[in-house]
Design a protein that fits this description.
Length: 288
């Protein structure tokens, strides 16, 4: 796992936006071989979306051959509700880029049969050959997508009851009316996220600091589902200084020192990719 620390949320968005741009361009997606990208909602990814939109407008990036899968959606909230994740994604991102709407996949929290909806979502991901890069955010309780504490670390897309803390945290989007926040959601599972070839997680703000320290300084634990990332071969967490508030000084120093040589290692990986050698055959040490 790599941890990248930037000064503030805007710098985090700049880093991740440019990183995703680079990954998509290196992949060189085509209609036959699209880049499959997993995406989150929430306030944390908004700076990243802004950077991606800018890069599309500057002609440096295109989503024409990108297929997206969103992490989650509330159950029972009308699709056109201002706080549905459908509305959020089109308002904050999709309507500003060149992605064909047919290539956008978001769970339908109003499906007649929610279990079939979840199973067919998994099947669709599989049909595309899996997710290349899953971008995620976390809740204050360390949940990734809506995988609340106690979620199975091998869970798949399913219906999930929200934790009361999450309902309280999300009430800010519903005029602080706790009763208006949906109690259930459809979410990809921790296993679904772990199956992606690469996972990038954005963690900003002091209120996420405890979750970050639990996830990276302690063991893999279902009470902090982000910690499952420790089992992933290619995971990157990008945080701002505020989110490091609960980390040990030596943890911060360690990851900052790792970053110093990261560019050099990445340059070597790039050279091997250019020769057509896949990442798992690079014999120069792993990037995690
Ligand atoms: N289901 C979403 C998560 O996927 C998201 O990571 C979290 C954080 O939101 P924010 O970035 O606004 O703190 O909100 C919700 O709980």
């Amino acid at each position: 796992m790599r941890l990248i620390i930037r000064d503030d949320a805007a710098a985090v968005g700049e880093y991740i936006g440019n990183y995703i741009c680079k990954r998509i361009n290196e992949f060189a997606p085509t209609p036959e071989k699209p880049f499959v990208l997993g995406l989150p909602t929430g306030s944390s990814p908004i700076p990243t979306y802004k950077v991606l939109i800018r890069l599309v407008k500057e002609g440096k990036l295109s989503f024409k051959n990108v297929v997206t899968f969103n992490m989650d959606e509330y159950v029972g909230l009308p699709r056109d509700h201002p706080e549905s994740y459908h509305t959020f994604m089109f308002r904050e991102f999709f309507s500003h880029i060149d992605i064909p709407p047919t290539q956008v996949n978001i769970l339908n929290g109003n499906a007649q049969d929610l279990i079939t909806e979840c199973n067919s979502y998994e099947a669709r991901i599989k049909k595309y050959g899996g997710i290349e890069l899953f971008l995620g955010g976390i809740g204050e309780d360390g949940h990734i997508a809506f995988n609340e504490p106690g979620s199975s670390l091998s869970s798949r897309t399913r219906i999930k009851t929200l934790a009361y803390d999450t309902i309280l945290a999300n009430a800010r989007f519903f005029n602080n009316d706790i009763s208006a926040v949906p109690r259930m959601a459809l979410t990809v599972g921790v296993g679904t996220v772990l199956d992606s070839r690469e996972v990038v997680v954005v963690v900003t703000g002091q209120r996420k600091a405890l979750a970050l320290s639990k996830a990276i300084e302690e063991g893999v634990n279902h009470l902090w589902t982000l910690s499952a990332l420790q089992l992933h071969k290619w995971a990157l967490i990008v945080v701002d200084e505020d989110a490091t508030a609960e980390l040990h000084v030596k943890t911060v120093k360690y990851f900052k020192s790792i970053e110093r040589v990261q560019d050099e290692v990445e340059a070597m990986h790039e050279a091997l990719r250019a020769k057509g050698i896949p990442d798992n055959e690079h014999n120069i040490g792993s990037m995690d």
